[in-house]
């Protein structure tokens, strides 16, 4: 278990101050402008996981921990933590001298209130992340002891400022949490203070002079510019008006163009916490995809690399199992057999023959409608590709595009679909991001992005439950290997490829990838080379 | 033959007719020239024209642009013709009734027509297709719905000018039914402007269909020129041929139809007949 002493951090800061006094002058100051799209619905990260909120709020609020690119914990509001061997007690030692932006001290009471009274009740994923926490003890102002019913290793991955922000008890207690003033005017402990939100134009944050990390933040001001039009966003990036654009702020076709321009860079780092995976969902209760054989055949036929190279401009990595390879650092990843290195049409045909999908006079073995996620053009190209690829083994698809509400209703409420092209966030731990797509208890009519395939298997449910509460990393890895093998054989969901989102940035911007949270990080170390 | 003599006088109309015939032949022989599905992944993606066996190059997924143009010609012409037929029928019924009866019927029908005319036609078409799912039939309906008011106006004007003529009054005296007078007596006399308007409407319909497909509101299972341009738009800088050739196809076809329409107008309009 890691344990970084504050002393060591202090030494590091002192050393940095000695060696870079000259550089420090250049490294501080300046207004950092980034492009935000779309406009956030609020600035309340404790009430919503909406992406645009996540790009602003973590600069104001902080979590107990931050994470590096491999999702190892890094101290933030918790200077260190300790997990008991049985996993039932987690002790957080909090940083000292941390104050809220209104001057009140940050204490363990804020931690207890944030988790027990806000996140567990109001946050979309909080009830799941803190499911096992029944009590938080606060023996003194700088110690918070989490008591758990069962071990919950996944909880330790959900403590970032984006996922579980610490919010001020003194402003929220006794009020309507959903309708408090801080919903739109956040008050946190972070490097930047909220100043102004001009709807439709910008959100302005100014440097927190009393920030608890010495010498930080380096920037004087952060401005999130809200630009609804895609080509205007690209132009702003090209002109140097904005320094940073994440997610789909810059359209893929423009990314290809901008990355060749001097002074503009493109990176895929910073999305580890989101862990997006493109995939196909099969309706396991409806012909023709109600048999595992045909689902496996589809996986054998699809040329994943072709899709990455020709539709996603090379941004992506072939999936080799039900879990993303980003879980490999936690020992939760194993390649499985129905994800071939190269498409294998012969094997697919044999599977279909053996399962009784006989071709008719036109060579058609099965007909179905492919629903395509209505999130833009690349998905349409992918749908067109899949139609052609599956035609090779006699699976004839028709394509259907609908608007978002109709499509969500069809797949997750009416279950009136056969095969659906989609993508999910696998998030930093399978319990948070992946279990929801497979568990029998996750067949929740009307809730989007859960188990829409209606796959239900008692054996798998048991494996998922033990995977969630196994404190030992090695044993946990073994359980997830079994889970991946099971999902490989049954394949209610077939992964296509791990998506690589990009960040387009101006090369004057420095040290913005220090956190694995990427766009959802504090930017306290970030500086502008002026 | 008198018609052809009159039509032939307009050189550009003959030129237009030649192109139109060529497009028709292309559409008719598409399946022979390019057998199989035009969506087929035929080879190396993004091949330039003349390379890897692609006459006009291939698109981002390796689909043959030339095959798409040939098969797309079928779609464009089919939708253009169908939508026009539906629009003309609607327009003739509304305009005919309004013009023939006048009075409150005219008022009611024309107010309805105006409702349709006040909505920008392309936006209206987008709305209709977005509400009913994108498919060939919904596109035909959308184009017809936005196109018929112009025909209705035209037909109404013709009917108003013809309904008091002696030959119509003579029909009344012989006890002919209203329906028969409208269809058998008046309609043939205002056929020429309808044909001219209809021919131009085919061109508009092709443009609207291309626009809808470009925006991704076309039938996803049927190739069309607008779809090809929409799909190739993102690679305009790196693979110009994907957009350019379907664009040229639309340009030539619409131009040809307009020229032919002009020629028809010259040939059918008695007032222009002696124009030299």
Molecular structure report:
The complex is a heterodimer of chains A (530) and B (276). Chain A is built from 16 helices and 21 strands. With 530 residues, chain A is of the alpha+beta class. In chain A, helix 9 packs antiparallel against helix 11 and helix 15 (458-469) packs antiparallel against helix 16 (473-490). The radius of gyration of chain A is 24 Å and the shape is globular. With 276 residues, chain B is an all-alpha fold. Helices cover 73% and strands 0% of the residues of chain B. Chain B has helices at 2-8, 11-33, 65-101, 103-118, 121-131, 136-162, 166-173, 178-189, 191-214, 225-232, 240-268. The longest helix of chain B has 37 residues, at 65-101. Chain B is elongated, with a radius of gyration of 22 Å. The mean pLDDT of chain B is 90. Classes of the chains: A alpha+beta (530), B mainly alpha (276). Chain A binds chain B through residues 252-253, 257, 310-311, 372, 377, 380-381, 383-385, 387-389, 391, 398-403, and chain B through 37, 39-41, 45, 60-62, 130, 133-134, 216, 220-221, 230-231, 234-235, 237.
Which short descriptors sum up this protein?
heterodimer; A: 530 residues; alpha+beta; 7-stranded mixed β-sheet; 6-stranded mixed β-sheet; 21 strands; 29% helix; disordered N terminus; B: 276 residues; mainly alpha; MetI-like fold; 11 helices; elongated
The termini of chain A sit apart by: 40 Å
Residue windows where pLDDT falls under 50 for at least 5 positions of chain B: none
Mean pLDDT of chain B: 90
Sheet with the most strands, sense and barrel status of chain A: 7 strands, mixed
What shape does the CA trace of chain B take?
A: elongated
| CATH architecture assignment name of chain B | Orthogonal Bundle
Number of domains of chain B: 1
* Quaternary class: heterodimer
Strand content of chain B: under 5%
């Amino acid at each position: 278990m890691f344990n970084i002493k504050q002393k060591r951090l202090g030494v590091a800061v002192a050393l940095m101050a000695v060696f870079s006094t000259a550089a420090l002058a250049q490294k501080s100051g300046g207004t950092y402008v980034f492009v935000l799209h779309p406009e956030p619905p609020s600035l309340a990260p404790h009430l919503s996981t909406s992406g645009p909120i996540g790009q602003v709020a973590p600069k104001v609020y902080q979590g107990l921990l931050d994470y590096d690119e491999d999702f190892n914990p890094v101290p933030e509001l918790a200077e260190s933590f300790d997990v008991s061997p049985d996993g039932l007690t987690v002790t957080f030692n909090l940083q000292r001298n941390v104050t809220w932006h209104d001057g009140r001290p940050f204490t363990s009471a804020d931690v207890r209130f944030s988790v027990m009274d806000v996140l567990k009740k109001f946050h979309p994923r909080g009830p799941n992340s803190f499911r096992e926490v029944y009590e938080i003890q606060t023996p003194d102002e700088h110690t918070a002891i989490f008591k758990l019913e069962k071990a919950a290793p996944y909880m330790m991955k959900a403590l970032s400022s984006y996922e579980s922000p610490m919010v001020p008890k003194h402003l929220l207690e006794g009020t309507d949490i959903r309708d408090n003033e801080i919903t739109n005017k956040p008050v946190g402990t972070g490097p930047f203070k909220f100043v102004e939100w001009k709807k439709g134009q910008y959100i302005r944050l100014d440097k927190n002079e009393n920030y608890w990390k010495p010498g930080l933040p380096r920037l004087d001001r952060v401005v999130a510019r809200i630009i609804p039009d895609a080509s205007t966003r690209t132009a702003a990036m090209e002109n140097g008006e904005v320094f940073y654009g994440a997610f789909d702020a810059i359209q893929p076709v423009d990314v290809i163009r901008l990355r060749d321009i001097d002074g503009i860079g493109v990176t895929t780092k910073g999305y580890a916490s989101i862990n997006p995976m493109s995939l196909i969902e099969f309706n396991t209760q409806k012909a023709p995809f109600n048999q595992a054989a045909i689902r496996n055949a589809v996986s054998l036929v699809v040329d994943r690399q072709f899709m990455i190279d020709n539709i996603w401009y090379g941004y992506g990595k072939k999936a080799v199992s039900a879990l993303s390879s980003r879980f490999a650092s936690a020992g939760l990843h194993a390649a499985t057999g129905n994800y071939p290195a190269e498409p294998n049409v012969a094997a697919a045909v044999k599977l279909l023959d053996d399962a009784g999908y006989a071709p008719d006079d036109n060579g058609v073995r099965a007909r179905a409608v492919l629903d395509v996620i209505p999130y833009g053009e690349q998905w349409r190209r992918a749908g067109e590709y899949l139609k052609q690829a599956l035609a090779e083994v006699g699976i004839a698809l028709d394509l259907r595009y609908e608007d978002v509400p109709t499509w969500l209703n069809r797949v997750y409420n009416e279950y009136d679909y056969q095969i659906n092209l989609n993508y999910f966030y696998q998030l930093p731990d399978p319990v948070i991001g992946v279990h929801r797509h497979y568990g029998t208890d996750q067949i929740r009519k009307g809730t989007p992005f859960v188990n829409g395939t209606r796959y239900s298997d008692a054996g798998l449910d048991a494996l998922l439950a033990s995977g969630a509460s196994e404190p030992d990393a090695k044993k946990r890895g073994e359980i997830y290997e079994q889970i991946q093998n099971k999902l490989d054989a049954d394949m209610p969901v077939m992964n296509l490829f791990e998506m690589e989102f990009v960040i387009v940035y101006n090369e004057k911007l420095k040290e913005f990838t220090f956190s694995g949270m990427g766009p959802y990080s504090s930017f306290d170390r970030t500086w502008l080379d002026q | 033959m008198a018609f052809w003599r009159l039509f032939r006088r307009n050189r550009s109309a003959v030129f237009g007719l030649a192109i139109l015939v060529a497009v028709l032949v292309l559409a008719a022989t598409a399946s022979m020239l390019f057998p199989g599905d035009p969506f087929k992944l035929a080879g190396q993606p993004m091949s330039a024209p003349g390379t890897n066996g692609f006459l006009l190059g291939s698109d981002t997924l390796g689909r043959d642009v030339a095959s798409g143009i040939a098969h797309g010609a079928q779609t464009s012409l089919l939708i253009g013709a169908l939508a026009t037929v539906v629009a003309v029928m609607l327009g003739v019924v509304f305009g005919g009734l309004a013009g023939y009866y006048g009075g409150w019927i005219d008022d009611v029908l024309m107010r309805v027509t105006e409702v349709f005319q006040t909505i920008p036609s392309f936006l209206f078409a987008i709305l209709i297709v977005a509400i009913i799912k994108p498919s060939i039939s919904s596109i035909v309906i959308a184009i017809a719905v936005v196109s018929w008011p112009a025909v209705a106006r035209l037909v109404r004007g013709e009917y108003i000018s013809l309904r008091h003529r002696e030959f119509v009054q003579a029909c009344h005296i012989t006890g002919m039914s209203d329906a028969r007078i409208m269809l058998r007596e008046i309609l043939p006399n205002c056929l020429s402007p309808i044909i001219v308007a209809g021919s131009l409407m085919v061109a508009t319909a092709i443009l609207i269909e291309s626009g809808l497909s470009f925006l991704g509101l076309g039938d996803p299972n049927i190739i069309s020129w607008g779809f090809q341009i929409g799909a190739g738009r993102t690679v305009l800088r790196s693979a110009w041929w994907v957009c350019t050739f379907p664009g040229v196809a639309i340009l030539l076809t619409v131009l040809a139809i307009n020229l032919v329409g002009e020629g028809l107008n010259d040939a059918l309009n008695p007032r222009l007949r002696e124009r030299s």
